[in-house]
Specification:
about 35% helix; about 180 residues; eight-stranded mixed sheet; alpha+beta
């Protein structure tokens, strides 16, 4: 049976629960409440919250969109809901928003040891194009810098459409 979730633009009323998810996912080195509230006031920032069928906030993601580029700032899913394609649905939502806003390229940093996230990004056409040494403050872990090609290119679009069809068979998400 597919999990059913609702993805909505993040609201200020979501932030307290977002902070709980941050602490679960990232431990003591996570964004502050003020950071999220600031992001929600930033016209360049696009943030999304995910709610389970029973209304529980279970995940979120965000990006900045500046001219032709987007930078994924975070994708986090509460541990109880992982492995249900929620992060993938959030990535799809970010890419859809980039298409809508004519953003051509998407970038992000990901922990070099986060093989599950790296595999997800590679599945959607991201490629590692560099390393930020010691990027993560909690343990000095390196970050891979990943980029897409132009998302309007046929190769990217074809792969994206294929992945979305597969995703639609695994999770029900309403936006």
């Amino acid at each position: 049976m597919n999990l059913s979730v609702k993805i909505k633009p993040m609201e200020k009323s979501d932030v307290d629960k977002i902070i709980d998810i941050e602490a679960l996912c990232y431990g003591p080195h996570h964004w502050s409440k003020d950071s999220f509230l600031s992001e929600l006031s930033n016209s360049l920032a696009k943030y999304f919250s995910v709610f389970s069928e029973d209304g529980e906030l279970v995940a979120y993601a965000g990006c900045w969109q500046i001219l032709e580029e987007a930078h994924v700032t975070n994708i986090a899913v509460t541990p109880k809901y992982r492995r249900n394609h929620i992060a993938e649905a959030l990535l799809k939502t970010i890419i859809d928003t980039c298409y809508k806003n004519m953003v051509k390229f998407i970038t992000l940093e990901v922990r070099a040891g986060n093989t599950a996230a790296i595999a997800l990004y590679e599945k959607y056409g991201f490629k590692s194009l560099g390393i930020r040494k010691g990027y993560y403050q909690d343990n000095n872990e390196d970050a891979l810098i990943m980029w897409t090609e132009n998302i309007f290119y046929d190769k990217f679009k074809s792969n994206f459409d294929k992945r979305v069809l597969e995703l639609n068979g695994k999770i029900c998400y309403d936006r």
